Amino acid sequence: MSHSRWKTIRERKITEGFTEPAEVAEARYEIRLSMALAKAVHDRRTALGLTQAQLAERAGLTQAKISRIERSDTVPTLPLLAKLARALDASLDISLDDDSTRVAFTAHHSDAA
Hints:
By secondary structure, the protein is of the alpha+beta class. Helix content is about 60%, strand content about 10%.
């Protein structure tokens, strides 16, 4: 089944009043959080022009660990997130709300140096 067909079926179910089970909704929320972090790490790393191996070296991690984070295959601990933020020369900003989630790395200084 193509993605567009799946999306159409899902949208039709929603408009017909279908509600997904609570555990499915929770899993979907957790996946969105993980994907938001993965995108933030990838975006900041590429903005700095770093490879996964270079970021791993700066953070004291393995390239495989960076890859798992960027693929949303792992849930990093707070100490690991602190290492990533230092290695990316940025602050990690996470905003969690019922309606929206924001995960971003904010540079400590200009990257243009």
